[in-house]
Each structure stands twice: as C-alpha cells, then as structure tokens.
Amino acid sequence: MSYHHAKGQSYPKVSDAVHSFAKFQMGIVLIRQHFLVSKRLIQHERNVVATRTAGRSGLGLGGCPRVGYFGAVGRVSGWRLSRVPGVRSSHDLTKRGSLSMSSCVALIVAAGSGERFGGEKPKQYLSLAGKPLLRHTIEAFLAHPAVTAVQVVYQPLHRDYYDQAVAGLGLPEPVPGGATRQDSGRLGLERLAEWPGGPPKTVLIHDAARPLVDAGTISRVLAALDHTPAAIAAVPVFDTLKRGEGGLAIGTVDRAGLWQAQTPQAFHFSTILEAHRRLAGAGLTDDASVAERAGLSVALVPGSPDNIKVTTPDDLARAHRLLGPTPTDSRTGLGFDVHRFAEGDQVTLCGVSIPHRHRLEGHSDADVALHALTDAILGAIGAGDIGSHFPPSEPRWRGADSTVFLRHAVELVRARGGVIGHVDVTLICERPKIGPHRAAMVARLADVLGIAEDRVSVKATTTERLGFTGREEGIAAQAVATVALPGSVW
Ligand SMILES: [Zn+2]
C-alpha cells in the first residue's frame, strides 16, 4: 500500500472491525461541543475575567464488538486557546539563521527567578491564554518582519519549563543568565558577538515578562536607531507621584519630564556590547542605564500603556484582560490510516523508531500515526488530505520522514493565523507494545507541532486479536485534532 491509503479504496482482507472503521468514517458526525458560552457572556466577561472557553475532543476506541469499536468523542472544557499571530516557523528561522550586518536580533531576557511573583513556577513560564508567557513574548518578535532571529537568556534551573515553552519554535540554544539583570544582558550580547556569520547590526533587548509588546512599538524603537545609537520604549507619567514614609505622604514629586521606561530597548549592537563590557558589575537595572552611563544618547520613543511588565498576580490578570476574550473559531478534524507489515526490523510511529520483527510498508517511512494526525489537522482546517498535498506518485516522497507532512499541516494552520489546541492519537495494534515509547512519542509530537506536551495525547489499544490488526498484519491509527482559527462560530 502506498504511504497513505487511497481514499475510497477498499482494504484487502478487511475484517468486521475495518468495516466498522469505514462506517464510522462515513456515517458518524463528530460531536463538536464548542463555545457553549454566548456572545453576551463573552462581552460580560470582557469586564470581569477574560475567559475563552474552547473544547478539546478526544476519541476513544473500545474493543468490544457487540457495542461497536468506537467510543464517544469526549470534551474537556475550561481551558484556553489563543491565536498565534503570524508566528514564523523554525523553517523560516533556519533559512534566515545566518546573520549578516544588516540583521536585527531580539534578545529576550528570561533569567529572573520571579521572586516578587511568588509561587513555584517562575512567572515567565506561567500560562497566559493557553501558552507560557515567554512564548507570547518570543512570538511577538518572531512575527515582526524586521527581526531576523530571537535569542533567549534563561535560568538553567528552569530548563524543562524553557523547553516546553519554546517547543517547535526552532530557537538557538539559550544563554545561561548571570547573577544580575545587567550580567544577563551582557552574557546574551556576548553570545550574539560569537554568532556564526557575524554579529547582528542592531539588537532589541526585551524583558520576557512583557508579553504584550506590539509590532508598532518594536518598529518605532528600531526606526529611531537611524538617528541615535540607543532608543527605548517609554510612556510619560501622568499620575501625580507622592513620596511616602511610614504610610504617610511626605511630598509630591514633580512629574514634569518623567517617563516610565519599558522594553524593547534597541541599540547599535557593537556600541551596546562595548558599553556593557566597560560597565560590567555596575548594578544597573536596564540596558538603557548602561548606555546612559556610557555617555550614549538614548532616544525616548512612545511605547504602549498595554506593554505591561508582569510582576505580580494582579499584572497577570490584567494581561489576561488586555488580551481580550476574542471569540475563536474552534474546529475538530479526524484522521485514520492503515499500513501493512512487511519484512523488516523496525517501525516508525509518531516519529519514534521502534525495533520490531516487521517494518511497515509504504511509500514514505509509513508512520501510520503521523499520517492519521496529519489528516486530522488538514481535516480541521478543511484543507484536503495528505494524499492531495503529497501525492504518492511523486518519487521524492519515497522513504520520506513523515514529520515533513505533519509540519506542512502545522504551517497551513499557522498561515491561517490559527493554533493547534490539542491532538489525540490512538494506535491500534497487538504489537509492538506502545507503553514503553509513549512518553517519547508525546515529546516528539509536541516538538513537531510546536505545542506543550500536555496538549498531546498518545494512546494505544488492541482489537482483541480480531481483524487485521489482531492477526498482526498491520497497524491502524486514528487521530483527532482541535484547531482554533481567528473569527467566530457565531
Ligand atoms: Zn499512511
């Protein structure tokens, strides 16, 4: 059989179980239960708490012939989906990975411990509208046309959180931060100085804890570099400022000429690197202070009042409100695939190689799980099926790594401004046993899909030795994917 079964083709030696599958595919309407909240409720929530509720669908396979092979599509509510506005793919990053003097790198400083926030998880990894705060920040820069690449400075103790937050973004290895904010900034710059292809011409230094930075602010600070070596986003102070002591006001501070500094802060790369090297250990709290101390003129560029720094739980709640309860068009897609066994010694399932007494036959690497999942994602966005994107007749797909197909489906979702909320894959076979490989499969899928591991499910079942999977003639896989697109179902 080709790497993907032809649609409508009947399977050889089909058992009753396979007929059940086919009937299911043709006849059962997938239960979609999304957006139970009304527009009115959404509008109400705009003023209370920005909650977008979307559905996750899971598909179960039961092994009892008397009641049919398929269980219901279940739903878990109360989690959040958000849109990824034009995130660049790791492919794009690789294409643009070689830096030149015309390039601009965003240096995201995420090395803080977030002590003021409290709690176990550092604040830069807390969830904001369904994804880690750091990921929002990174994606804002990846989506900006003037930014060539993103380099993160991080705290190595947070490595697991970091890996999950950046899965699928194709970022360069993060730089371990230093003891102070100033050290972390310098260490990040030193890494950029060593980049293959040469250091960038300009650098945007940004706090990971400002996830709501907008493209206009980034553009404005960069534009100012045409006239000055340093420029920072800032907003004028409008509130009356009081000096306090023991809970009492002891004076009013003249607010004339006062600005609140934000990030991004943009610099000519070699100039800020030199300033950082010269002033190492000065205990300065932002990079503009380093530039000022070095005698550079620093332009104040209008930032945005929404570009808040998430420092306390109240700030996080405010960030949720600012993101707004945009209605999201949630779709569910279903995929199914079968490959037969042939002589061999390993199979590839969910992108993971597993020693086995057979291989799976197919035009590509015959990763039946990835084919089902690719079809599920394509189905969710109404983009045809895997065979229409990668015709088995084309020799270039012979032996292909099926993650190529899955990445393509992910790209199509992103090109529509969408995000994959959740996937659920079920492998149907007697052997190989999936359990020992499940964690590796989940990790691999999360990486290829660019989503957190808790949004990925891999399950396995047998058909009680019935049918072709029961006779160990091949492996079947089914998958559901939930995708959110911009817009509304109303
Ligand atoms: Zn296939």
Word description of this protein:
- It is a single chain.
- The chain is α/β, with parallel strands linked by helices and 490 residues long.
- It folds into 2 domains: 16-80 and 327-486, 2-C-methyl-D-erythritol 2,4-cyclodiphosphate synthase (60s Ribosomal Protein L30, Chain: A); 90-323, Spore Coat Polysaccharide Biosynthesis Protein SpsA, Chain A.
- The protein is built from 15 helices and 20 strands.
- The chain has helices spanning 16-27, 39-48, 90-95, 133-142, 159-166, 181-193, 215-224, 269-278, 287-293, 313-323, 368-380, 386-389, 403-415, 438-449, 467-470; strands spanning 54-61, 70-79, 104-110, 127-128, 131-132, 149-154, 175-176, 202-207, 230-236, 241-245, 248-253, 259-268, 298-302, 328-343, 346-349, 352-355, 358-360, 419-428, 456-461, 474-486.
- The strands form 6 sheets. Strands 7-6-3-8-12-9-13 form a 7-stranded mixed sheet, sandwiched between helices. It has a 5-stranded mixed sheet with strand order 17-14-20-18-19. A two-stranded antiparallel ribbon has the order 1-2.
- Strand 10 and strand 11 form a beta hairpin.
- Helix 6 (181-193) packs across helix 8 and helix 8 (269-278) crosses helix 9.
- The longest helix is centred in the middle third of the chain and has 13 residues, at 181-193.
- Mean pLDDT is 81; it is low at 1-54 and 63-98.
- The site of zinc ion has 7 residues, from strand 14 and helix 11.
